[in-house]
Amino acid sequence: MNFYQTLWIFVVVFFVLAEYNFQHVEGSSCASRNSSCGDCVGLKGNCYWCKNKKMCGKFIKSDGKNQANCKGSDMYYKQCYVSGNLLIIIIPCVVGGLLIIIGCCIYCCCCRKCCSKKKGLFDKEDKKLKKERNERKQVQDHRKAERQARNEEIRMKYGLKPASGDSRYQRLDQP
Q: Residue 69 domain-assigned?
């Protein structure tokens, strides 16, 4: 961007902010809007409506003096449907409930899916280990068969053939 474009953006932003601040200060006279709740809380300033006294006042967050002359159950801030005390109770409860629901959804969707993927990974690993175990068993059986064949040859060579299927050795009688 060149210098003129930057300057133009700066000027526009400056005037927008200046106009907003001017309207904010101009609309801050809440006491002049005592006709109805809608007129009072519809201002750009922080105004509250006291239902009992039917008056509009400036709401100062850090100072409770202006709100002290109006009970929380009769005070309406930024809307005319729910009183101030209910907002203090309802909004945190709704937000807390939504956070719990969102947390549960995240746990169910993400964490359980990850666990099922891990289970699938373990199934793959178990299949791989089972296949390797079967291969080792086949090699072991093959070696065992070779060993038995070699032992049979040695027995036949020296006349130690077992008698009719009995696999135990019999003692030779010495003459």
A: yes
